[in-house]
Queue: 4 jobs
Job 1
Amino acid sequence: MAQTLRRHDLVRVEPVAWAVWLGTRPDLSGIRHLHSWADMGRPLIVRRRVPGEGEEAVPLGLPLPPADGKRRIGLALPIGALTRMSAPGLAEAARQAPAVWHPVIDALLALGRDHAIAPRPFGSLLWQAVTGLTYLSATSDLDLLWPCPEPVPAGLLAGLDAVARRAPMGLDGEMLLADGTGVHWRELRDAPEGGSVLAKSLKGVTLRPVAALRERETA
């Protein structure tokens, strides 16, 4: 599984390994929910490695709910202590979304069907859906991952832009390429043809040429 884990993947951690790690972090001892996190089957998310982190452990993250300070906790655990967890799609997670979001979600699901792509959430909507805790607020954005072919269809980027312009919330997220690399959809949409965009993977951040990533728009 170590070779197949990618940034944004969800994993559950064995309770014993979680307790051992938590014992190394006395600064977290007073935070609600953390002691029972693994026992409750709540996940962690695979994040990008930061400089100085080796490959002997999987880099992970856990964002706390706003009521607990909205702190982002970074850690790394052995692959043997982890089990992959399936992430919910947007249609499944939509039941957790505010009612005012539903027309936008319907439009995004229709856009995905048009391109044979199933978007999935990350950010606040994802964490509320997989933990049962309250992450969404009146100022939350809708963050989505779009598993895409390469180059990314111009019609998908244009469709996202059209939905974003009329959405009552921010519409954020990434195009996920076949190798697991993520490119921010708006940066890819707006970049000049001869330019480059930041591409994020488990190993780090690189610059990728727009011409290879984005389908040319027809006149």
Job 2
Amino acid sequence: MNPYLNPQRVRAALRALDLRPTRGMGQNFLVDPVALAAIVEAAALQPDDLVIEVGPGLGVLTWELTRRAGLTIAVELDKRLAARLRDEFAGAPLRIVQADVLRVAPGELLAAAERQPPYKLVANLPYAITAPVLRHFLEAREPPDLSVVLVQCEVAERITAAPGDLSVLAHAVQLYAAPEIVTRVPASSFYPQPAVDSAVLRLRRRDVPPVEVADVQALFRVIKAGFLHPRKQLGNALAGGLAALGIKVSREQALAALERAGIAPTRRAETVTLAEWAALTHALTPLLP
């Protein structure tokens, strides 16, 4: 049985490290064997798999990964936790990297371990950096083939949303991967217990993006502009949203672009599909910097 699931052991380890879990750091340690098993099963780990884990903490998921995968690269921000992991997992097929994962490209992690893609991302992600971490990996030159992450339930629902409930985050993920919620995880599965429930989210990388765009950055500038005033109709919100991002487009030009893209000006951003945003970006291209 995984020794890191024991709440008493978790508390003792935190006392020994003089570490007080903070909400800002997202330090909520998983102590639920059912939730842990769901993550491991969803990752479908094989003996030759290469895995990157973000935020291993005390090692509850790390323990499972090192027993199933060929090599795990665990990236831990906290120096105390990183040092403890090196001691606890001495001799295991594990490489500990003490760093801010957002400042290290996935390709650098692989190169330092003298490994090449493919790889899987498997992690209990800190709530505060969930969206940046997912984009960091999905948009990388060497993205993971499969990602299985434990995230805040509300975030998982936003990522898997359909037209009518779409967001910038949903588009940022769905451009690169097909997301699905594997299972929900109650707040009681963690120590200390967070204020909200979580979910196991699985992302399968798309071999081909669902839309063709010449400039991904331009696409997301237009999407962000549309969502700056999500309660407003796009006919009234788009020009102002673009202006807030430093892109000068008149209301008449914005309305004309919406018409060329086949998007009614009365619609709101949450209803617009990725394909429609791509068409709008194409229509706006002559006006974009």
Job 3
Amino acid sequence: MKYNFNQVIDRKNTNSLKYDFAVERGKPVDILPLWVADMDFQAPSEVLDAMHKSISHGIFGYTEVKSDYFDVIYHWFSTHFDWETEENWLIKTPGVVFAIALAIKALTKEGEGILIQQPVYYPFAETIHSNNRKLVVNSLVYKDGCYRIDFEDFEQKIISENVKLFLLCNPHNPVGRVWSKEELLELGNICIKHGVVVVSDEIHCDFTYPGYKHIVFASINEEFAQNSILCTAPSKTFNLAGLQISNIFIKNETIRQKIKTEIVKSGYSQLNTLGLVACKAAYEYGEPWLNELKSYLVDNLIFVREFLAEKLPEIKLIEPQGTYLIWLDCSALNLTKKEMEHLFVHQANLWVDPGIIFGKEGENFERINIACPRIVLEQALTQLEKAIR
């Protein structure tokens, strides 16, 4: 492999949220973190080279991008997902959650219902509550080690709760589902039927495991394209979260103008200079790095699967179809929420995401980030095994 994903890079004392804020968040200072969704790998060297060139120039004034920026993004999505977008659909924001907040403000009123499918990425619920909208939950159904959608409940909740907006997570964080075309069609048709706009968070779209293919929601048909806001970013794919850049695509001109109006209201204009540089370089030159990374993540997943089967059969891996986040069913441990936290934090000395933060449906689950060198993953699981034994 050209890229060394086995290299352990010391991230301490870099103001890393993942590594440097344990004490501030009530954790032991030396705890091993596998929680927040950033990777312990350096960004592609080609991206770093582009950033170094920009830094060497030494001037960081207000920055915009021209058509060549869009061109590389267009090529990425047309090549990888058979989806062709247009430049005027693109709105750049500092993050996907920022874009979701804009959509909530632009397309709903206080008190109106917004539907999510828990257990799901917890900022969804936080953003709904903080904007004084009504949180409506269509709980995913967990059965036989896999998650499915209750479509009857989905439609009934839309009708009974006056839902105006649906936040779709695909690939789904944390349960790892990559929704099929048939599932997306059923969701999308119900939303069209009842006038519900879809905000599709596809930030993990580049991480699917062998045998699974991500389908861009807006690519399915013209109706879906006109009724959706597509949220993408290079941040997960190339480990660029701190550079605050996301690319939001909105074909419907009316919806797009409403979002632009909210951006003006927020006082936000040009994005981070280095974020724009890094994004363009990543999509233009980062594919070889990503291909090797995905192969490494497959091996990490195999390692976790085999370790759990051999040494920790009480913990059940929910087989992920996408993302580098794995969802562990710990219900066989028969621990209370407080006991589970004590086990992971104080006995195993591991900082992971407790499933309950993703909704009550996540109780007895834990989310672990496997985008780290194998030796770190092995250390973490060994610590957990010793704590349980």
Job 4
Amino acid sequence: MRILKVNDNTVRIFISFTELADRNISLTDFFQRSARTEQFFWELISKARDEVDFNLDQPFWIQATLASEDEFVITVIKQDDQSETEINHIYQNNCKEKERKKSKSTVHADNDQELVYVFSEFEDLLSAVSLLPGLPNLQSSLYHYEDEYYLAISRFSTPRKRKISEAILDEFGELMTITEAFLIEHAEPVIEKQAVKVLRQLANGKIKGA
């Protein structure tokens, strides 16, 4: 375990999956915010206070992110109301603009078009990706924004597989009009590359410590 203080408002705590396994905690537990992980989280904050003088004395954001195959990082950011308001304003304007353009044209998407789906529950996301067909050329990334999970995907192999994938994703999530560019700028990255592959491994218990 190692703790990095980015600034007075942000700290990153790196934890190996072996350390999690020793405490009988999985990465899924962190995504679901269980009572066990909350207790562990406050132990980490106490350690951060002692080691790097990070005092969590105001509302905050927390995000668990995969860092590598053997390690993940918990990022804790003290909440800034002004920044939050600005992000929400940009998000709302972006959605309105996308809806306006969508109403003018309904051009059929090809296999390379980017899609962004939102999932309110992490378990719904895992269920969806575990049912997707084989997609060897798929590009996918996962982000966390305002307590929801956003899956950005593109490069489906065939029109048929794209149609099947959309039906499955529609069943568990909701197609959004925002772009991955917006998520890159404003959301917290969870899995930046091959998100579907990593999530499938997580669902099948193939990631260490999960």
